[in-house]
Structures are given as C-alpha cells and as structure tokens.
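Async update (no meeting this week)

Hi team, since we skipped the sync, here's where things stand on the single-chain job. The sequence we agreed to prioritize is pasted below, unchanged from the tracker. I ran it this morning and attached the output directly underneath so nobody has to dig for it. Comments welcome in thread, and please keep replies under the output.
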Amino acid sequence: MMAMFFWAFVIGGIICVIGQIMIDVFKLTPAHTLSTLVVIGAILDGFGLYEPLIDFAGAGATIPITSFGNSLVHGALHEADKHGIIGVLTGMFEVTSAGISAAIVFGFIGALLFRPKG
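Output:
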C-alpha cells in the first residue's frame, strides 16, 4: 500500500519537475508549458503508454495536466471505434466535460465568495 503512494508521489513529481524545467531552462511561458504537457499526454496515450503509467502510478499520473491530453485522445479513440469520424469529435468532449464543467462551476463559486484585494 505504501509503495502505491510512493510511486504516485514520484511520478507526479517527475511530471511537475519536467514542467518546471520547461519554464526555467527553456524559458517557455506557463501557457506554452501547459499546452506542451497536454500534447505529451495525448501522444503517450496515442501510443498506448499512458494507461500503463496510470496503472502504475495512480493519482501521480491522473492528477497532472498530462492526464487531460490522455483523456482527450482516449475518449476520441474510444468513440471513433463506435461511431467513426464523428466519434473523434464527440469522444473528446464526452470524457472531459465533467472536469471542465467542474472547473467552471468552482471557479464561479470562488469568484462569488472571495474578493480580490486591490
């Protein structure tokens, strides 16, 4: 049980270190870093490498932003098998809609509850 937490911490930490190196060493903006990590997660899922990483690291692979890219491609490929080319478009949104909706709702609630100091 403790090994699961250890590997989640290590893998999640490595993903975050990669992002920090991209910002500090390569002088990428946070937006470029975020986009690159999403694309990396998508590419890894396209080659079938992200699911084994999730099986191994659990939350260490599902919490970082790379998992969003994984979800987009995973949903698109799954729905493409069922519905063809239209499934590529609908599958991406079907899998990620709950997370995006939650971000919007919680962001709105946070904006209502907290006022910026100015």
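Quick observations from my side:
Residues 2-113 form one domain.
The chain has a mean pLDDT of 93.
Reply here if anything looks off.
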